[in-house]
Amino acid sequence: MCTRGRKDARIICTDRRGYPAAVIIALLDEGDKESIEYYYADGRGEKDEDREEDLMMRDDDYAEKLAEILRSNNIRSVTVLRMEVPCCGGLEMAARRALEQCGRDLPWQVCTVHIDGTVTKN
After folding, report:
1. Which residues, in sequence order, are CB contacts of 55 under 8 Å at separation 6+?
2. 87 has a pLDDT exceeding 90
3. pTM above 0.70?
């Protein structure tokens, strides 16, 4: 887990009581110390605003594993299904990196599930 600004993040709580909106508590790496941040369930720190401190999945860890899967198997195409919330951006980035690293030219697409339930192909 990391922030958009690439700070390492450790999730310490996902069920904070008494604050129905900000249910996630995370520690952000500030070098020689850690800061405490509170997040909505979608990984955002502010309800309608994207910030460098928003949470996302660390794409580096997944990219290497996905690239090996793509190299070692007879996969003909890749479809990434992600939610529109910012914390799912890391999944798409990991897939992009894996496709670059795997050494194969595979067709791929990204489909986004929106908050209202609709799905779009990007």
Report:
1. 1, 2, 3, 9, 11, 24, 26, 39, 43, 44, 86, 87
2. no
3. no
